[in-house]
Amino acid sequence: MWRIHNSAWLLVLLSAVLQILIFPLPDLYFLDWAAVAPLLIALLRAREPDTLQLLAGVKLLPARPGQAFLLAYACGILWYAGTCYWIYNTMRQYGGVGTLAAAGLLFLFCLYLAIYHGVFGLLISLLASPEAGDATNPFSRRALLLAPFAWVAVELARARITGFPWNLLGISQVDNIPLAHIATVTGVYGLSFEIMVVNTALAAAFVLRTSRGERGKRKPLLLATAAAIVVLQAGRLISPPALPTDHTARLVQQNIPVLQGGDWTKE
């Protein structure tokens, strides 16, 4: 499709599945360190060259802008369908709509918000263009370097423009208390950035050229990435001590009219 290599589509599917698993209900939060890496690899190794390449090992090139948007957009559709499935039941039970209408609303919802994933793919493609990258490499080091910034920018746009800050990448580490302290300074976007840095390092290990010099860098990069994952995720094993309390706080969704209607009681 659109001259996109089949392996890129498989990587997009893998990334979407991993991004679903790091959030409830599966809650396999530790997979977030590798959830976006397959998508990055797909974007940077998406198509076969138009001309014969004499350099051994160089086979797949970065996606063109349209291809990159399509790959990331498909990933976003699958991700929203797998994490925001509750919209279907909400529309049926509380929206007063039928089965087909609820399914249609969920589908349109996924098509709309997946645009943000698509924009991320587009940004990576533009950064990986020959003008932005190193002409001696089939991918752009600049694209990998700026990928965490692009992801956080897209998350920020989704939260501010659309007003839907649902399942931002950093939220998956909400129970990692030592690491989550970053959010007191940077907000959830600091956690998202740190997770993306690790994902980018992991992706870089797999898109390195297969020349002898680059192969020598792959193993150390993989080992360093694995060590970073272990260290950063280890905070999840630390349980903070319970503190004595004399008050109870309750959180209520802000758009629920607590002081109106007969359904609410003092209790």
Walk me through the structure:
The structure is a single chain. About 2% of the residues have low confidence. The protein contains ten helices and no strands. It is globular and about 75 Å long. It has one domain. The chain starts with 5 loop residues before the first helix and ends in a 34-residue tail after the last helix. Helix 1 packs parallel to helix 3 and helix 9 packs antiparallel against helix 10. It is 57% helix and 0% strand. The protein is mainly alpha-helical and 267 residues long.
Topology of this structure?
Layout: H1 6-21, H2 37-44, H3 65-83, H4 86-93, H5 99-127, H6 141-162, H7 177-180, H8 183-186, H9 188-207, H10 212-233
Helix pairs in contact: 1-2, 1-3, 2-9, 3-5, 4-5, 5-6, 6-9, 9-10
Summarize the structure.
This protein is an all-alpha fold and 267 residues long. Helices cover 57% and strands 0% of the residues.
- Rg from C-alpha positions? 21 Å
Distance between the termini: 58 Å
The total count of strands amounts to: 0
Order of helices and strands: HHHHHHHHHH
Structural class, by secondary structure, is: mainly alpha
Helix content: 55-70%
Q: Given the structure, what is the number of helices?
A: 10
- Overall mean pLDDT stands at 86
Taken from the alpha-carbon principal axes, the silhouette is globular
Parts with pLDDT < 50 across at least 5 consecutive residues:
132-136
Number of domains: 1
Percent range for β-strand residues: under 5%
Largest sheet: none
